[in-house]
Specification:
Oligomer: single chain
Strand content: under 5%
Radius of gyration: 22 Å
Length: 455
Amino acid sequence: MNGNIIDFETEKNIDGDIIDFERPFEAKKPVISSEVIQLKKGIWIYFFLIIFEGALRKWVLPGLATPLLLIRDPVALWLLIKSIRSDLLPANIYLKAMVVTCIIGIFTTLFLGHGNLSVTLFGARILILHFPLIFVIGNIFDRQDVENMGKAMVFITIPMAILTALQFYSSQGAWVNRGIGGDANGAGFSGAMGYFRPSGTFSFTNGNSLFFSLAASFILFFWLDPKKINKIILIAATLGLLSAIPLSISRALLFSCIVSAVFAIIGMFRNPKFLGRLALIGIVGFVSVAVLSQTKFFQTSMEAFTDRFNTASEAEGGTSGVISDRYIGGMVNSILGSNNVPFFGYGMGMGTNVGAMLLSGKTTFLIAEGEWGRLIGESGALLGIIIIFIRLALTAKMCVLSIKKLNSGNLLPWMLLSFGILNIPQGQWAQPTGLGFSVLIGGLIIASFRNRTPE
């Protein structure tokens, strides 16, 4: 890469052709050109397709449900080609290492694994097509763009909460609960007390949980900096988020919201100027819960959520068992169990639902449900652990830079990290919606490090 290089951390220009890989988020600092404007529009399209892809597959174009599964892939490909041609894709060790690992994995899959080209390409697109978008978004967007997208998330939270409530209280045969391809059996997943977990506008219930989890980090950020958003919308979105937690019957959403709240508290204590807003957030939260608790729909959803939480927690050995089994235990067991997997794995794509359908004719987990287990099962111990390490190292670098920005008064990267730290290292990238949210949050965190460049 020729010309001036920008360090996203220090915002100092570096002359020369050699990139210091100790600073992984370096790239040419994009000015507001026609190419950048087009790329920003493409990123917004990618964002809206994450949220509304399921709606297209369930309600708008159910007959095209299968090809619409890959609706973001052409957008991702266009963004990559456009960025490379405009010399706006940062070169860094994470990107190069992931692409090289993926290419090696393609060859080992075809010659030593399952050998199915279609399944291989479907699995490879995760690493070679979508993963680079983290750096495209991070280089094209800036802090103001991130805040604008956050405002959009906050606004969408209101109708998404209403839709979630309608789905919760409607039968699975109702139109709002139609499944992929217009399936009249419904898109809900087993919950508690006869209620199903709503899917929102998404193909599956995990999309709804991920949406509200990301929305929580933005909502808390805007409460810490309320001058940047309309107060009525922020209050309505807060009520929507608090309602969605029990309506979703999702322990993952509750856990993610708690993590974001902890990050907000840490952020306020690390920067004294935010401490005065702690009381405001506490009052708003208390009043919101008090108001909602007087409504019948909230009481019913809380009963279902509590029943689901207690039943599932008991089955998994209590709350500590949930955390150790789902997060810590799942990661450790994946690595320890790699001895039972061929050295180069069973092949890329085999751990995805699409790959399972093409190889076995059934939508099932041919390898593992957990993300790290899938990676090691598909690519083997060596390549699988390399991919895991890249994701961990990238997250660690984001943590370091977010803390530095927090100490200098920029709370946005820190709050976004509360969602990214759960999804970039261990998010389920085999599932298109999970992949989309991980790519999006990774790019937004990087972009939030940098203020807008004057034209």
